[in-house]
Amino acid sequence: MNKICQHPFKTIQIQNTGEVYCCCCYWTDFYSFGNIFDQSFDEIWNGEKAKEFRRQFIENNFKYCKTDVCDPAYDDIDPKLTVAYPIRIEFSYDRHCNVRCIFCRHEKNKEEEEYNRNKEKRIEENFDRIFTPVIQHAELIELNSAGELFASKHSIEIVKKIININPQIKFRIISNGILFTKKISQELGLEDRLSSAIISIHASTEKTYNKLVERGNFKAVMENVKYLSELKKSGKLETLQLNFVVTSINYKEMIDFVKFAKKMHARAFFINYHRQIDSDKLETELDISLTSHPKYNELVKILSNPIFNNEYCIVNDYLKSLKPIKLSFLDKIQRLFKK
């Protein structure tokens, strides 16, 4: 056995175009194994493109992966292993959302919405034919890293279909937490099928949260996180994770966020700001992890706090690699005026 990233051997990610990836399409530079509308699943999963992608891990040559942004999910994998079906399926295409985050897409595009709706309709029409055999063999379904599951009628119907096909399935839910209520969880039958709940909050205070999340509801998020915390304590939820994208607006609340996560029996996950969707016009202003940012050294100092080394806290590799920089007197003056 070798320690190899498990995604190419165990996971697929479905986009609304029908393209199949093994994980985040941005991190694999859109390397697709195939298209579910044009090929059989067996042709995709065991095809030459999939084999070629897996080969890079066997040869330790990551030419298709963006290793500077990806945190590999290492596991003991036999490189000669042939798996008939993936055990984990990620539905990562439904961009419906009830909020607009400053570091995500925050402008509506009617043409894009119509395009996405047409793609969703095609998936709905072909869902049973394409996914039933795969879901029957799956152990875990992930929803929805592209938008907000509970704000989408399409994704809610997908959940119902999945449970009908495989009543033993487990779910890994990614959500902003506003609509992730006890009521909807019980109505959909999720409460007894939750493996992980990942809630994106990005702040410890309502004031900072409101600067980052337009049309958000901090009080609702707090109430629903407490509900999920109770599930975690009771053993119904395996993992509760609270996400925090580090920016120049919220970085001073990182330590308090870790303390809150611990109180909720959760783990805090910190990731650097990186804009993958739409433009990057806010990068120089929000990305405090850039050495050119006037507050860069302040962030590095905060990250040196021992609290970030605890088991209830995860800091992504990029942030962990940051080192303080020495500034000349002139640099200090220039940065002072930029603040």
Biggest sheet record: 10 strands, mixed
Helix content: 25-40%
How far apart, in Å, are the first and last alpha carbons? 51 Å
Structural class: alpha/beta
Rounded to an integer, what's the Rg over CA atoms? 21 Å
The number of helical segments is: 13
In spatial order, strands of the major sheet run 4-3-2-6-8-9-10-12-13-14
What is the beta-strand fraction? 15-25%
Helix and strand string, N-terminal first?
EHEEEHHEEEHEHEHEHEHEHEHHEHH
**Any idea what the shape is?**
globular
Overall pLDDT metric: 87
Catalogue the unreliable spans: none
Overall strand count: 14
Description:
The protein is of the alpha/beta class and 339 residues long. The chain is 38% helix and 17% strand.
